[in-house]
């Protein structure tokens, strides 16, 4: 079983699933996480993939689900840039959660985090 990220109505983030596995989510699961339509998620995924920054074979897999259907799933590497392309309370909560995770831990240890903002710009 893969891991997914969930948000409650207060914007609290939690990771569900096997802690030994990586985070992979369907477009439908991402739409629930960010509270947007599946179409909006697919549009942003296409935009990120079109930028050429991420290799498709690294961020997208085609799997058979438990109910026998097949679906594309996407890694955390594409979930993060998609969250920065959406403007919802839940996407904002997810971004804040990411920043808190990146900045938590030993204060003496410095970390550098780069985010793809689109159109080839990064900060």
UniProtKB/TrEMBL annotation:
- In Swiss-Prot or TrEMBL terms, this protein is called RhuM protein
Origin organism of this chain? Answer: Bacteroides caecimuris
